[in-house]
Amino acid sequence: MSSCAALRALAVLLWVAAAYPVVFRARPVQALAANWGTRALHPLPGDITVRLLRDNGFDKVKLFEADAPALRALGHSGIQVMLGLPNELLAPVAASVNAAEQWVLQNVSTYVSKFGVDIRYVAVGNEPFLKSYKGKFEAATLPAVQNVQAALVKAGLARQVHVTVPLNADVYESLDGRPSSGDFRPDIAGLMVSLVRFLLDNGGVLTINIYPFLSLYADPNFPMDYAFFPSPGAPPSQASVQDGNVLYTNVFDANYDTLIAALEKHGLGAIPVVVGEIGWPTDGDKNANAVNAQRFNQGLFDRIIAGKGTPRRPQMPDVYVFALLDEDNKSVDPGNFERHWGVFNYDGSPKYRLNLAGGRPIVPARGVRYLSKQWCVLRPDASTSDPAIAGAVGYACQYSDCTSLGTGSSCGNLDARANVSYAFNQFFQAANQQKAACNFNNLSTIVTTDPSQGTCRFEIMIDTGRHELTGKSAAGRVASASWSAVLALGLAGLAAAAW
């Protein structure tokens, strides 16, 4: 090509780039995926959440249930969706093909055709073989998977939408600790083989949830550095596992490859294995903090961006980070940390710096609107020894999230007055700052100066009523509808008790 022709070509290229910049927008080396839970009293509106996902390079998301506002917001977004069918629906869907067809019609077909949601997987159940369930969902899981598959075929969606089952890592084990010795748990080995064979034969994937944090939480003697991905150039953990010629330097690689070895033992090594949940919480336990979460998730993001997998699966699979946002209405049965898994706070603000491809940091949600800048605190002239305090705090924490007050948590070092104030404010914010929600037997007052201190943040909730385009999640609707009754009965009960 002559120099003149080259200059003309360059000019055309620059003109096209200016006129159509989207054509030249670089995509991450490896896109990200996240779990979007909706168990929040004041959920971040769907349109803002979808924009948060896209602004940070997430192109896949997993929903635990068919939350209508979330699904509508995901329409025409370019984000692929894994949609959960909850455990409580396994039995009815397993018992009736018609029930499966109706569920697919209402929650898959409708959102694909009417709203343009790019649903790629139906996640049938959530960790249904968990040991603590004591077999409750075992008989229903495979029939439910088969019926959902049949329903997808009937709906003409089986080429686009595939089935999977998210499983806990306790479905497999290694008796000698080496990944190559991995096999399925003996009590469900036959069921696992049948399930994976069905998924493989029908174009599905196997989804596994891996939680290095929970290894540390369950065993105080678990080697902490083995829970994290080693930094480049750092010496391997002393807990590293030598397996033949392979040295496993972190629990994720060893855990994942234990599953791969189990699959290969049964001739199922061809099944794609997706990581459905993995992350690190920031509160609710001594090891749940922003420093540890940043260390773990940055190591994870670096692996995802580099596409680096494990010794048995060198290509990094799809990995759904757990979780996108904190959820203050989740069950805390597993531990107080359950409400604090988010990479982002409840309002979409980053908890700590995380670098994406090219060193670009994650960015906060845009367009979030909050309730007024006011807080409910213990009155200055009230005594912490007042006999009504205990009942008032107990009531406040029954209906709001006080998990940050635990030992070793972000608000665990507050003095007695601040501790009470935190509980009062959590209830006040959860109840949409209704004046009656700051009426604890004349022990409380509303202030306009932020009482936050140290690592403890006194929150102001999202004003969900001021956002347009999307409604509230199911959890948010139920919570809002019940606050009037909670205030009327609960505060009256407190007053009666004090009287």
TrEMBL record:
<keyword id="KW-0732">Signal</keyword>
<keyword id="KW-1003">Cell membrane</keyword>
<dbReference type="InterPro" id="IPR012946">
    <property type="entry name" value="X8"/>
</dbReference>
<dbReference type="GO" id="GO:0098552">
    <property type="term" value="C:side of membrane"/>
</dbReference>
<keyword id="KW-1015">Disulfide bond</keyword>
<comment type="similarity">
    <text>Belongs to the glycosyl hydrolase 17 family.</text>
</comment>
<keyword id="KW-0378">Hydrolase</keyword>
<keyword id="KW-0611">Plant defense</keyword>
<dbReference type="GO" id="GO:0042973">
    <property type="term" value="F:glucan endo-1,3-beta-D-glucosidase activity"/>
</dbReference>
<keyword id="KW-0336">GPI-anchor</keyword>
<feature type="signal peptide">
    <location>
        <begin position="1"/>
        <end position="19"/>
    </location>
</feature>
<keyword id="KW-0325">Glycoprotein</keyword>
<dbReference type="InterPro" id="IPR000490">
    <property type="entry name" value="Glyco_hydro_17"/>
</dbReference>
<protein>
    <recommendedName>
        <fullName>glucan endo-1,3-beta-D-glucosidase</fullName>
        <ecNumber>3.2.1.39</ecNumber>
    </recommendedName>
</protein>
<dbReference type="InterPro" id="IPR017853">
    <property type="entry name" value="GH"/>
</dbReference>
<dbReference type="Pfam" id="PF07983">
    <property type="entry name" value="X8"/>
</dbReference>
<keyword id="KW-0326">Glycosidase</keyword>
<dbReference type="InterPro" id="IPR044965">
    <property type="entry name" value="Glyco_hydro_17_plant"/>
</dbReference>
<dbReference type="GO" id="GO:0005886">
    <property type="term" value="C:plasma membrane"/>
</dbReference>
<dbReference type="Pfam" id="PF00332">
    <property type="entry name" value="Glyco_hydro_17"/>
</dbReference>
<dbReference type="GO" id="GO:0006952">
    <property type="term" value="P:defense response"/>
</dbReference>
<keyword id="KW-0472">Membrane</keyword>
<dbReference type="GO" id="GO:0005975">
    <property type="term" value="P:carbohydrate metabolic process"/>
</dbReference>
<feature type="domain" description="X8">
    <location>
        <begin position="374"/>
        <end position="458"/>
    </location>
</feature>
<keyword id="KW-0449">Lipoprotein</keyword>
